[in-house]
Structure formats: C-alpha cells, structure tokens
Amino acid sequence: MKNLLSFCLLLAAIPMQSQTGPADYVHPLVGSANEGQTYPAAGVPFAMTHWSPQTRAGEIKCVAPYYFGDRKIQGFRGTHFMSGSCVPDYGSFTLAPGMGALKTNAVERASSFDRATEHAAPYAYSVELKDAGVKAEITGTLRAGAMRFQFTRDDDAWVVIENNARGGDGWVRVDAAKQEVTGEVPVRREYAGSGKLAGFSGYFVVEFSKPFADSGAFAGAKIAEGKAEQRGDGQPVGVVRIPAISTAVVGASKAVIDMPTGSPRPGFGGYVRFPGAHAGDVVVARTGTSFVSVDEARRNLRAEIPGFDFDAVKQQARAAWNRSLGQIEVKDDIPARTIFYTAMYHALLHPRTLSDVDGSYPAFASMGRIAHADGFTYYDDFSMWDIFRAQLPLLTLLDPQRSVDFVRSLMAKGDEGGFLPIFPAWNSYTSEMVGDHASVAILDAWRKGLRGFDIEHAYGQMRKNATELPKDRAEYIDGKGRRGLDSYLKYGYIPLEDHIGDAFHKNEQVSRTLEYAFDDAMIGALAKDLGKDADAALFTGRGQNWRKVIDPQTGFARGRLANGAWVSPFEPAGKYSWITEGTPWVYTFFVPQDVPGLIALEGGPKRFEEKLDRLFDGKYYDHGNEPSHHIAYLYDAAGAPAKTQAHVRALMESEYRDGPGGLAGNDDAGQMSAWYVLSALGFYQVAPGVPEYWLGSPRFHETTVLLPSGERLRVIAKGAADGKVYVRRVTFNGTEIAGFKLRHAQLAGGGVLEFEMSAQPPVK
C-alpha cells in the first residue's frame, strides 16, 4: 500500500499540461518493483547507453540499477543493463553530485529523496536529492547523455565519476587542462566464459558547462587530492562471486530485501569540485560513450550533443520517443492506454546500438579487433530466447528498416565469430538459454518481404548452425554452436544421458529438442522458398522431431533415455531438469510449427481444447515466462476462438498493471511488453517464421498503426474498451475473414481491420 501511495504521489507530480504526446502516457517505473527487473531508462529508443538513477552499486548479475523499493539514490548511471533481465550490467559508470563534505562511497553518498519530486519519462528523469542538496535531471541521445545538477543550498559542490567495472579494473582520468573526465570500463562476459574479459570496453568522456576548480581520484576509502588518474580499485582484479540470485517469482523482490545496496568491490574513480556554489547554481554534464575508444566517445558526443543546452537535448529525446510511440495511435482515453504505451516503451529499448557515429564497433567475439558497419547500424544484446517470439516480430511491422539492420548485425556476428550466436550479449557468445532462434529472426524478416541482406549467405549460416559442430572443444566451451547437436543428430532428440554440461542452463534436453525442431522446421520452410528441395525435405523432417519427446500415451512432453524409454516417475506439473524454466504442462504446447499435428496427437480438437482448459484451470500457465506466451491463441486452432479471446483479454487485465509492480515477471528485453502491444491490437504471431498472425481480442475501440510505407492500418473494435471481449465477426477492408489468421502482407499493406465485438461468447 505504501508503494502504491508513493506511485500515486509521483503521478500527481507530473504536470498535466505535458500530456501532449504518447511519450507522456508512459510510466517508466512500471516493472521496477517485484519481478519486472526494469528501470527508468531515459534517452531515446534502442540507445547505446541508457541513463538511469542508481540505487544499487556495481555490475552484479541479476541486479538492476534501480529498484522502486529503495529509498536512497546513489547517483546517475550510464548503463547497459538489459532491461527486464537477470544479467550483469557492463561498461557502466556513475555520476553522483553532492554538496559539502566529499563522499565517494556509493552507499555513503546515497541521498534520500521525496518521492513526490521524482518524475520519470522515457526521455528524461528528475528528482530532488535532499541530503545531497541537488535537483538532478538526466536525458540522452543515441550515444550520449546530459545531466543537469541544480544546487539547492550554498556550499561547496562536487561530482563523483565512478567506474563500475565488474572486475575492478580500468581507469578514470581527470584532465584539468582540458576540463574533462575520461574513462575505460572493461567488459566481462557472462554464461559462456563467465567473468573473462570480453575483449572490448565501455569508454566515456564527461565535460561540464562550468570549469571545475580542483579534482582528484579515489579507490575505496582512499581519496587522493589532485591525483589525475586512478587505475583499478587496488584489489585483485576479477569478478567477486556473490550468492546466486533468482529472478523467478519472488526472486527479484526478495533480492532487493536481502542484497546489500553496495557493490562487492570497493569502487574507484575521480571527482571534480565546484567550490562556493550558491543555491540555484546549475552545472550541466554532457557525456559521450563508445565501445571502441575515448576518441570515439568524444566524437559521438560532439555529433550528438554539441553544446550544453540540456532542454534542447531533452526535447529532442522527447520528439524521438513521440515519433516511435506515435506509430500506433490509441484513440481511447482509458487507463489501458497508459499500460499500452508503457509496454511499447519497454519493447523499444533493445537490441542496443553498438556502432559509433562513424560505424566503428568492436567485432563480435574478436578480443580487440575493430570492425565497421557500412550502410547499417550494428546492434547487440539480443535476448533471443525471449524476443524472437513477439518483440522482433512487432518491429518487422513497425520498423522494417531497423529489423533489416538487426539481421545484418546477426549475420556480421556469424561471420566474425564463425557461428550464428544463440543469445548474443556483451558482443560475445553466451550459450545462454536453449534453441537457435537467430536463424528464425533472420528468416522471419525475409519471409515477410524484408530485403537488404544476402539471404543465400544467411541460409548458409543457418545450415552450419544446424548441421556442424565447432572445430574443437575449446570453441564449443566458448559458446559456439548448438548445445547437444551431436545427440540431436544421432537420435532425433537429446536423451537424458547427454547432460549438456557446457552451458549455463545445463540439461533441459526436452526443451532443447522441441525448440530445435521448431528452428529446423522454419529453416525447412526457407529452404523451400529458396528452391533447395533436398534441404527443405531434410529440415522439414527434422521439424517433426517434437514427436520424439512428447509421449503419445500421456500426451505430455517427457524426458527420454537413449534406449527410447520414457523417464519415470512422471508428473506433468513437476519441475524437471530436462525442462527449461517451466513444466511439461507448458512445454507440451511448444509445437507452433505443427499445431494440427499436436492436436491430432492429443486426440483431436475437442480433447485438445479440454487439455488447454486443464492448463488454465489448474494454474499451470505462467505468463511471467516466455514459453507460455503463444498458448492462449491455440484455442483458435481447436475451433474455440472465444476461449482465445477470453484468456487473452484476462491476461491483459491480470498480468499488466499501472504501478511499479505492474509486470508479472521479468520483462526480458521487452518480450513480455511486446506480447501486450500485439495482443491489444488484436493479433499475435504464434509461429515466428510463418508470416501470419492469429486473431485474439483487441483492447481498444480504435487504434491506427502508421506504417513505414506511409499506409495506415486501422483496427476498429467498437465496445472493446467498454469490456466487450468476444468477437462475432472480423473483416479486412470490408471482406469477412474466414478462419482465424491474417497474413503479414495484409497488415503491412494497410487497410481497415474491423472486429464486431460482443459481451457474450457465441452460442455453440
């Protein structure tokens, strides 16, 4: 109740006259409590660096920069934490302003604040730090940021610049002659190669609108007046291990209570002073970032923030968000509009821009080589197991040119590293999660008509991933290639004897089999499109491997031994090492490439419908985790679309709310949010790679999608905003739709999609 009251006070503090664009309907604090793992990222869509208040120090796995439940702010971070995830930050640094006695330690300098002064928008964040004596505002561009610090009393003022390097290495340099602060934050890997250097760093340059009078450096509790450079924190270099944190149900919220707000490392950096400051004095800090060099960070800064006009940068960021969010116009003035635009904001944060203004970027998995993106922007941090389902498909509709750049980025990674990455983050292989969905992301774009990349070359990369092992064990351990591919090729499934030890997620043999079967089926569909008949037959056949891990006797996904025997004892609601983050109840339904085949195996449409009923009635469905996301739409294929409509609408109402705890689970780089955006429009892509959408239940009376082609897609569903859930009839451009599917080409071409809504389900 206290958090809810605080959030209401926060909303009351937002000037209502600012409600002139979709960006002003966004509440970035949604998901920053409980399990959402989001934070109020300020700046622009898909930015290289996001700017966030910091309530938790250090680059700690599964610890976001900010949690709503924390009562003190330690500074403002240039962060690369993947929104809504359970990963470590990387290449990050923090600016912390204050007055009076210099405080360098993050916990000691942390300032209390009045929640009513906290204002979070996609394009800016502001708060009044009571203890620090500073009103702080932050905003950003694609590769740079601006912070405005207004001092609220007469005293000496200072700004600490802390290097957050996970390994305690790197440096911060204060150059009094140039009046700038620069730094290098070495990046370390996670999952495959956990803790090892990734071969590149985050670089930053900070400049101030007023000259600083003196400066120094610090490492831990040791402050060195006048020192120009600090290298490392003085402790042995390397990742300090902490107790494992889970971000499953009650995991993140429990960690907020149990974990210290300080870092396991002592911290280091530099500081600058502005002595004799008066109440009302303002200092603006502008910061350039790069993953290539300080020179590139400086070049990015000059290109994107050439002066110290904070308000101009803020307005540019606001305009950028209004352009992106304004691609979908929601006409209805109801609370769900805020939930919709907040979800859309979260869905437009990642993947991350990694290339500089001149196209330079650290080559993938290359340990230091610099590459150049010619004619495209290079992206990284693809939470692929999550976002291939809805977030990337959403962008193929809203932003096809950026989607092409995503494809070119994935292909560049495949060329530079030798294999398409499974889950590319930290510009490295990770072997995180299961499946091989980079292939699906690429072919989904192609099969939807997106061009601008060499599909024959991409197909060769997909085929290599699906058929070849790395050249040696060292490459495999480093994260290259499909986990368990040798077993999969031998048996058509991964038997339980193959424990998949060289992965963060070990075992999970059944889930891997099901996801590889889906990937292979999609590769087979692309092979057919390209006229590769032999490959089409091969991969389409492998797409049926799902049948080898769904027991026809029980009708459930089930662990299987190399001799073909099913594992016993077995309980479909049980937690097993051979299932990824879920239960057999959920993974049984991951056969999006062959829903008719799954229905037949389960005994026909009626029995399939009844099984879906048992899933939902038994509360086995888990919307907080991605494998569930397509399941409600499967009623469509069972001849029970009214149940799809009822469940989809119920999930929109129960799993998404306005408030810090408004997400039921990790947002996972925008996937959970993208589900809401698509579902609220009335459709969802059940099988990425198959360019069609399944119909659900729209949330609004009317929405308009402004397509990049200049066409408009109007979605009309009169009564939807008033509680009408069920659909009597659907037409597209006046022609009634037979069945429950729409082709991507139809929607991308624009037109009028109209749902005739009803408060009651149809009588069978």
TrEMBL record:
Source organism of this protein record: Granulicella rosea
InterPro entries cross-referenced by the UniProt entry: 6-hairpin_glycosidase_sf, GH-type_carb-bd, GH92_a_mannosidase_put, GH92_N, Glyco_hydro_92, PNGase
UniProt KW Glycoprotein keyword: no
Domain Glycosyl hydrolase family stretches: 296-758
Protein known as: Alpha-1,2-mannosidase, putative
Keyword Cell division: no
Gene Ontology MF, one: carbohydrate binding
GO terms (BP aspect): carbohydrate metabolic process; glycoprotein catabolic process
GO CC, one annotated term: cytosol
Pfam families per record: Glyco_hydro_92, Glyco_hydro_92N
Keyword terms: Signal
Domain Glycosyl hydrolase family 92 N-terminal: 25-290
Signal peptide from the UniProt entry: 1-20
Entry superkingdom: Bacteria
Native organism taxonomy: Bacteria, Pseudomonadati, Acidobacteriota, Terriglobia, Terriglobales
